[in-house]
Recover the amino acids of this structure.
């Protein structure tokens, strides 16, 4: 299954909820032909074909193949047999909330950015996010959409450290909003995610100096997070 580690991102009682997270490097941009795309569904094939840049095509294809591999190992279903749907959005009740398996479990989340893919699974709602550390100018602009307490903390940070600090906060916020199922349909300034949010357990993930990543798990108390750095073996059809 590859190397793995277990940690608890906080203190306090554990209610038994446990999340598993996979942090995976993206293959080179010229590796599309080496990826077995046969397990992808019609919509995924359409998305793969629509990308102009090889790097974007490989990132999307690898991320969705990795997701199917992880969920296959967790559920026992073959990767190509997995079917996906969307929960209703909590903001408008339309079907563009959290992605879910049609079988109902486990809960999962997928995020990808240049160079990295992060996947999370749990028995309760979960969100993961990975971000590339932005350029200083971009970070300065994006700080304006954060919660006032988050803005104050970043403004007190040394300018040279601000892009990485922003990426950490933004990955926590995106993970939480994805866990809720709202995405950015919920005002990013509505929640202070520097620490825990009521009913949710937020954990920063170690992904190196060029990225920031986090996982948010619906849990009233801190819970275990198992981190894997290699894909599991999928179930056979």
């Amino acid at each position: 299954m590859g190397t793995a580690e277990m940690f608890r991102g906080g203190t306090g009682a554990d209610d038994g909820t446990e999340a598993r997270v996979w942090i995976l490097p993206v293959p080179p941009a010229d590796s599309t032909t080496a990826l077995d795309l046969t397990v992808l569904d019609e919509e995924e094939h359409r998305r793969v074909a629509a990308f102009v840049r090889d790097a974007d095509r490989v990132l999307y294809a690898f991320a969705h193949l990795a997701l199917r591999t992880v969920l296959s190992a967790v559920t026992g279903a073959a990767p190509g047999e997995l079917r996906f749907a969307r929960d209703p959005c909590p903001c408008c009740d339309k079907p563009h909330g959290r992605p879910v398996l049609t079988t109902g479990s486990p809960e999962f989340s997928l995020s990808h950015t240049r160079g990295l893919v992060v996947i999370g699974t749990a028995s309760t709602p979960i969100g993961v996010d990975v971000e590339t550390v932005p350029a200083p100018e971009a970070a300065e602009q994006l700080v304006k959409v954060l919660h006032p307490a988050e803005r104050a903390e970043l403004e007190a940070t040394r300018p040279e450290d601000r892009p990485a600090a922003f990426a950490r906060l933004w990955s926590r916020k995106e993970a939480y909003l994805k866990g809720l199922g709202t995405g950015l349909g919920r005002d990013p300034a509505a929640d202070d995610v520097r620490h825990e949010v009521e009913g949710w357990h937020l954990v920063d993930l170690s992904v190196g100096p060029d990225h920031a990543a986090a996982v948010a798990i619906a849990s009233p108390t801190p819970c275990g997070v198992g981190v894997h750095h290699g894909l599991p073996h999928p179930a056979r059809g």
